[in-house]
Amino acid sequence: MSVISVSNAIRSHFKPSASCNADVARRKRALVVLALWILAIGCSLNYRGTAPNQKTMSTPNINAVLRAHENELMAIPRVVGVYVGLMDDGQTPCLKVMVSEKTKELAQKIPKSLESYPVVIEETGVIGPLSENKRKCKCQC
Predict the structure, then answer these.
(1) 102 — phi, psi (to 5°)?
(2) What's the CA gap between 98 and 37, in Å, rounded?
(3) How far apart are the C-alpha atoms of 68 and 49, rounded to whole Å?
(4) Average per-residue pLDDT in the chain?
(5) pTM score of the predicted model
(6) What percent of the chain has pLDDT over 90?
(7) b/e for 46-83, b at 16 or more Cβ within 10 A?
(8) CB 3.0-4.6 Å disulfide test: which of 5, 74, 82, 123 passes with 102?
(9) For 48-92, where are the E strands, in sequence order?
């Protein structure tokens, strides 16, 4: 037996089978899919690790914004209250301004947003204490 025939015999003995090649190809595809998935998750987070549409630490607390602007909003005629609420989407925080009567003049006096939070005007009518005979409970609260 010559050296060449021995070399060919060794190569054919250690040559990977077709099923082994298919398994390697499946593993490579799985690794590529995993790498793309990790890349997609990483790209959807900003450098602080929060999703892009979430408010970060640089945004002031909405309750602090309400406290800071409550007096100036309540000083506007026909404003009867202010509170923290949600936009119609049920997720976005906003400041709500309750007014006795919503007019164009009043809407121009109330800011559209305060410190990056939207301001929503709600017409509630006049708000005042209940009279004694309209109270539901008979306690002295």
Answers:
(1) -85, 120
(2) 47
(3) 29
(4) 78
(5) 0.53
(6) 45
(7) eeeeeeeeeeeeeeeebeebbeebeeebeeeebbbebe
(8) 123
(9) 79-86
For residue 12, give the amino acid letter.
S
Q: The tokens 């089978």 sit on which residue?
A: 17
Q: Tell me the pLDDT tens digit for each residue of 33-65.
A: 776 777 777 766 655 555 555 555 578 899 999
Q: CATH for 62-123, among 3.30.300.50, 3.30.1700.10, 3.30.200.20, 3.40.50.2300?
A: 3.30.300.50
What are the tokens at 91? 């997720």
In sequence order, the 6+-apart residues with CB closer than 8 A to the CB of 102 are 121, 122, 123
Domain positions in the chain are 3-43, 62-123
